[in-house]
Design a protein that fits this description.
single chain, 134 residues, alpha+beta, SH3 type barrels, five-stranded antiparallel sheet, two-stranded antiparallel ribbon, 20% helix
Length: 134
C-alpha cells in the first residue's frame, strides 16, 4: 500500500481542526441570556457520551449531583482529570479553579470527553451551575 503524501495527511481532520470542534456552533449561536442548564443540554447533545471511567490527562464535561450535605458543588463541572481511584476520580474543576473529587455514584450518566480544540470554547460558555446540597 503506497504511503500518503504530506498534503493528503494534512487534510486529515484531527481534534484540533475547526471542522472537528463540536462546540463552536453553540458558541456562535449565543445571544447572551442563555440558561446554564439549557447550554449544558446543548453541549451534551453535540458531544459523545463515553464510559464513566475517565483517563487522567483528558478533559471532561458531565452532570454531577453531590451527596455530601451542606456543601456547594458545581452541577455541570468541566474537569481536567488528574487521578482515578476505586471510589471515583479527582481533577481540576475549571469553573472553580481548584481540584475537586467526584464519586462514581454521583455522576449522572457518562462522561463527555472534550477535545483540546474545544476547551477555549467551552470555557467561554456560562455553564457553571453552583448548587448547595441540603
Amino acid at each position: 500500500m503506497p504511503r500518503k503524501t504530506l498534503q493528503q495527511r494534512r487534510k486529515r481532520p484531527t481534534d484540533t481542526d475547526t471542522n472537528v470542534n463540536r462546540v463552536r456552533q453553540i458558541v456562535d449561536g449565543m445571544v447572551g441570556n442563555e440558561n446554564p442548564d439549557d447550554l449544558m443540554v446543548e453541549l451534551l447533545e453535540v458531544l459523545t457520551e463515553g464510559p464513566k471511567v475517565p483517563e487522567p490527562g483528558n478533559f471532561y464535561l458531565f452532570v454531577y449531583n453531590a451527596k455530601t450535605p451542606n456543601i456547594q458543588y458545581d452541577q455541570n463541572p468541566f474537569v481536567a482529570v488528574t487521578d482515578v481511584f476505586e471510589w471515583g476520580f479527582r481533577g481540576l474543576n475549571l469553573h472553580w479553579g481548584e481540584t475537586r473529587q467526584y464519586t462514581w455514584s454521583e455522576v449522572a450518566g457518562g462522561l463527555y470527553k472534550v477535545f483540546y480544540s474545544e476547551i477555549e470554547d467551552i470555557q467561554s460558555l456560562p455553564i457553571k451551575r453552583i448548587r448547595l446540597n441540603n
